[in-house]
Amino acid sequence: MDFQVVVLAGGTSKNLTPLVSKEVPKPLLPVANRPVLYYVLHLLEQNNLKDLIVVVEGEDAALLVGAWISGTFVDRLHVEIAAVPEDIGTAGAIRAISHHLTAKDILVVSGDLVSDVPPGAVAATHSGPLESGSSGGKDKAKKPGRYNIIGLDPGKQFLLHIATGAEIEKDTRLQKRILRAVGQMEIRSDLMDAHMYAFKRSVLQEVLDLKDTFQSLKQDVLPYLVRSQLKSKALLNGIPQGEENGNKKVSSQNNQVMVSRILANASTPSFHELCSEDPEGSAPIQKTHKCCAYIASSRSYCVHLNSIQAFMDVNRDVTGEADHLLSDTSLDRNNIIGPSPKLGTKTTVGPHCMLGEGSEMGDKCHVKRSVIGRHCRIGSHVKVVNSVVMNHVTIGDGCIIQGSVICSNVQLQERVVLKDCQVGAGFVVTAGSEHKGESLARKEK
How far is Cα 305 from Cα 40, in angstroms, rounded to an integer? Predict the structure, then answer.
């Protein structure tokens, strides 16, 4: 497949404070002791999509991410790092690197995606010359206010309606011309957007140029493409066919027939032609695009690392139910322990745990459903449950850590108790202190 792949890796994220920092931008946040960006790049490599542009917010973050990619995927991927300003949105990021886009077809993938949804299948859905495709999978962790309302044709080939975010709190309006054309529409609320989009470059750039206020691919570009699909250029320019003779009703009916005919003949070669005759057989009508959908298997795994809770969830899943994503790790998936660990007497590491290379634990420690990073020093009588401990962390004797994230180079002195906390990089937690539901971090200078 001749696709140019754009990976939107991000940079910093307010939703992930204090986990992200200047030293550890979002793309390098560890998931099962690997940067989250690893999972997308590895997935693309498996699907033989190796010509990549990785877009990173901020010059400093781009240098860090570029150095990591060079050391990890050397001679495996052809990667160009593109730095863009922070907080310009996904559509803004594509607009900023548009001069790098040279292929006819573009596949845009979110860099915070941990998934086994095959991007090659999404790209294959984008088979015609005028298409823009999207993908979806079963919503694994549906939360109030985060639903997607999706409208599909009976054959589940076309994305006919989409409402996300604040839109779904309002009355949902369906376009009559589409509804009449397809006869029926399947409305789904159990699908999530996998943030894999296949675009015809000319269509994407035309939209970004025309709508210079668009900032988000999901919130702005995709809904616009769905609303405007299968219209002629005359309609998009605000001149409905047939209006010249004053017969708007005939115009509407003709347009309805045109859409019906296009959808009904989607599998025929004529569907992929640039021009088609109008319903009366007169002047040809130039079509713009159509939006196809790829619906992943309900068994697929798909999570975005876009919040602290998602960070906790994906670390737990990748060492548990989604351990197949650790494709080249030890075959003993119940306890994934790195080289040369040192465990004290009567120390237990339970199922679905990971202990990084060079880490040491004292006597009578207990670790359950947690990830311990590399080169950590953990004292005796320490309990770590449902937590993530990053690299080079020192934990004193008698500490209890539950449901928490401990960032790199943190020092927990003796008898510290943490429950549902996040501790930023380099922070020192004083001996005997107890914290619940707190975010502990050094003040930025």
Answer: 12
